[in-house]
Amino acid sequence: MSRRYLVFFIIIFILGISLRLVNINREFSGDEKRMLIVKKPLNEVMNYVLTKESHPPLTFLMVKLFSFVSVSNWFLRFYFVIFGCILILLSYFLARGFLDQFKSLLVMFFVSISPLLIWLSQYARSYIDSASFIVLSTILFFKIINIEKPKKNLWIGYFLASILSLYTFYF
In whole angstroms, how far apart are CA 44 and each of 41, 53, 57, 75, 168? Predict the structure, then answer.
C-alpha cells in the first residue's frame, strides 16, 4: 500500500471509530435490555440464554467475558463497537480481493459512514459481531478457492469463522 493510500486508510478508519463511539453511553432500550442479563452470575446468564433467549449463546458468553472488566452501559456497548470497527477493516480486505486500492478504500469509507452499520455497532445485540464473522468467513473462502493448494490454516480459519457466525446469530 502506498503512503498516500495508507494515510487515507487511517483517516477512514479513525472516522469510522469516531462515528461508532458517538452516544454509546445511552440507556439500553427495546430488546437490547436482554443483554443486561450479563450483569448477573454466569449460571443465571446460561440458564436465561438456554431457556428464554431466541438467539444463539455465543454473543452473550463473549459479552459476559467482556463484562468482567466493567458492566457500565458504555463498556458493554463498546464490545459491539469493536466488532463494528473490525467490520470496517474486513470490508477493505474483502473489497481488495476484487478491486484496486482506491475502490477498496471507497468501500471502506461507505462502510465507515453507513448509518445502519453505525447503529448496529452501537446496538447491544448480536448483529454486528455476526456480520464481522460472516465477512471474515467470506474473505477466507475466496482465498481458499483462488489458491491451487490452500493451506490447512485457511481451512481451519474458514470453518472457525463460519462456526462463530452460526453461534452468534441464526440466519
Answer: 6, 12, 13, 21, 19
Q: What SS3 class is residue 112?
A: helix
Query: How many Cβ atoms sit within 10 Å of the Cβ of residue 48?
Result: 16
CA distance 144 to 111: 25
Give the span between the Cα atoms of 109 and 82, in whole angstroms: 17
pTM, two decimal places = 0.91
Question: Quick one: which H or E segment has residue 65?
Answer: helix 58-66
Classify 94 as helix, strand or coil.
Answer: helix
Q: Is the pLDDT of residue 112 over 70?
A: yes
CA angle at residue 101 from 95 to 103, to 5 degrees?
60
Q: Write down the residue that cell numbers 452470575 correspond to.
A: 41
Distance CA 111, CA 89 (A): 9
- In this prediction, residue 18 has a pLDDT band, given cuts at 50, 70 and 90, of very high
